[in-house]
Design a protein that fits this description.
Length: 257
């Protein structure tokens, strides 16, 4: 891969954004490569959690601004659509996703992190959607996802001032799940991932689906999906295993069936 480094280890699919000289700026090649590796992770039963992070001093400083000079209305629209479709794919990905934020997460970089289920950041990380300073605005889903994550007033402030915020402020407003020291970032992320790896991948997938679709629907539809799905879960082997393990005071061994 030209723009990524990829590793499969202990049930985790690692995606390292790998353009450190450009602070891992996202170009079309990177969009296509992430899409392709996710398709591989999706069908690989060994992979149960996906972690995104950046090589070098940044998570990702956003879309590659150097290519903007060549864009016109049609090609810019197309680029935004491709980026947005990737973020939608990440958000709806069947397996849990974590953004391990190791420095700047700006513009499209923060949009990628926001499409993940969880964001764990090192204390020196800086977050922001500074597109307004370029005379544009977020184009990979940020205008919608940030509002849903932190509410309208803070989201408008972040997008309309373009100001960067520190990781601890991100945690305070609900954008970041956990802030940790720079030295412990990987260890803490792995600890978090370990909790997910213990669970049934099948039930996690169904639960994620219900949370996401329910969040975008009228509550009555979400609640209905919840109870229908709850019934469905009782036809799975993992439900039998989980309940049996509890009743027999042992650890469950979920198989994803
Ligand atoms: N695109 C392309 N190149 C980028 C980049 C980006 N988004 N961000 C950084 N770089 C490049 C710099 O041009 C520089 O390259 P050269 O060494 O070849 O000059 C290299 O990465 C290192 O960057 P800096 O020298 O600027 O590093 P710094 O530590 O002084 O500053 C920074 C770091 C504050 C993150 C600064 O690089 C910066 O402001 N970057 C742009 C952030 C931004 O505006 N992001 C939004 C992009 S638009 C977008 O994402 C649209 C969308 O929603 C889809």
């Amino acid at each position: 891969m030209e723009t990524l480094d990829v590793k499969k280890e202990n049930g985790i699919g690692w995606i390292y954004l790998n353009r450190p000289d450009k602070l891992n700026a996202i170009n079309l090649k990177m969009i296509n490569e992430i899409d392709s590796i996710l398709k591989d992770f999706e069908t690989d039963n060994e992979i149960r959690v996906v972690i995104f992070t950046g090589k070098g001093k940044a998570f990702c400083a956003g879309a590659d601004i150097s290519q903007f000079k060549e864009l016109n209305t049609m090609t810019a629209w197309n680029f935004a659509r491709k980026g947005r479709e990737l973020m939608d794919y990440i958000e709806r990905f069947m397996k849990p996703t974590i953004a391990m934020i190791n420095g700047y997460a700006l513009g499209g970089g923060l949009e990628l992190a926001m499409a993940c289920d969880f964001r764990i950041a090192s204390e020196d990380s800086m977050l922001g959607l500074p597109e307004i300073n370029l005379g544009i605005y977020p184009g990979f889903g940020g205008t919608q996802r940030l509002v849903r994550l932190v509410g309208k007033p803070k989201a408008m402030e972040i997008m309309m001032t373009g100001d960067r915020i520190r990781a601890d402020e991100g945690e305070r407003i609900g954008l970041i799940n956990k802030v940790v020291t720079k030295e412990s970032l990987e260890e803490e992320t792995l600890k978090f991932a370990a909790k997910l790896l213990e669970k049934s991948p099948l039930i996690l997938s169904i639960l994620k689906n219900i949370i996401l679709y329910g969040n975008d629907s009228p509550i009555v539809d979400g609640l209905n999906m919840e109870s229908l799905g709850w019934g469905y879960v009782f036809s799975t082997e993992d439900e039998k295993e989980g309940v049996d393990a509890f009743l027999n005071k042992r650890k469950p061994n979920f198989k994803g069936k």
